[in-house]
Task: inverse folding
C-alpha cells in the first residue's frame, strides 16, 4: 500500500507532503496533482479545504471536490460559500499500489 498526501497553498505551491507529487494550478480554483511515479491501482482519495482565518473555521459551503482520480493524477476544484470557483488552500490523501 502506498500513500500520497500533502498540503497545498491556494497559489498551487506545496506547503508539505510526501514528496512524490507535483501540483499545477490550471485556473481559478482548479488544480491538477500528478503522482511520481504513477500508482498501479487507486484504492481511494480525499480532499478538503483548509480554512486559515481561524475562529469559527468558515462556512461549510466553502469546499473542495475531486473532479477525477486516476492512477497517475487527480484534479480537484475549490470554491467559496457562494459555490463559485475560488483559490483555496487544501489537503489531500490518496491510497493505492
Result:
Amino acid at each position: 500500500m502506498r500513500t500520497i498526501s500533502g498540503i497545498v497553498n491556494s497559489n498551487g505551491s506545496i506547503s508539505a507532503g510526501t514528496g512524490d507529487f507535483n501540483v499545477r494550478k490550471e485556473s481559478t480554483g482548479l488544480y491538477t496533482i500528478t503522482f511520481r511515479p504513477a500508482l498501479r491501482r487507486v484504492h481511494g482519495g480525499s480532499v478538503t479545504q483548509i480554512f486559515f482565518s481561524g475562529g469559527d473555521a468558515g462556512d461549510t459551503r466553502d469546499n473542495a471536490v475531486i473532479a477525477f482520480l486516476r492512477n497517475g493524477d487527480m484534479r480537484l476544484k475549490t470554491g467559496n460559500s457562494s459555490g463559485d470557483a475560488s483559490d483555496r488552500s487544501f489537503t489531500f490523501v490518496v491510497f493505492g499500489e
Observations:
- The chain has a mean pLDDT of 93.
- The domain at 2-96 is CATH 2.60.40 (Immunoglobulin-like).
